[in-house]
Amino acid sequence: MTTERRMPSPTADERTMLEGWLEFHRQTLAWKCEGLTDEQLRSPAVEPSDLSLLGLVRHMADVERSWFRRVLTNEDVAPLYWSDEDPDAEFRLTEADTYAEAHAAWQAEIETARGNAARFGLDDLSEGKHRRTGERFNLRWLYTHMIEEYARHNGHADLIRERIDGSTGD
């Protein structure tokens, strides 16, 4: 499988632009994981960090789930990989953790996110609130935050991938 990344149109309206950049960054993380074995994907960035490409995919599955389900639509769903007792569990991997499982969970959360977001306008406030701050967010803020979240972690993914096999690219 080859991930096709599409740059958003430079003349798109605001919503199309935001959705386009979010999709681009989702595709970038998938691209950074392509062609690697589960062992390589579980490989940490550098000691003592647990940060790995597989951990990033699991993390982003939970981030998508949290913002587009728990906050945006007030759905009562548990995290996929972390817990209050172990908030970084998505990065603590075992031999049993596979990219196939994490990728499927991540893609399912992305599909749900797209469907949930389609029901809201950019200025519409979320039905749920942030679990720590109690704030509500409009969809514009949520899209912008998700673009930032992916962009930051895609920078991590660039460095991890280069360490694994020397591959570089934007």
TrEMBL record:
InterPro entries: DinB/YfiT-like, MST-like. Pfam families: MST. This is Putative Mini-circle uncharacterized 19.1 kDa protein. It comes from Streptomyces afghaniensis 772. The lineage of its organism: Bacteria, Bacillati, Actinomycetota, Actinomycetes, Kitasatosporales.
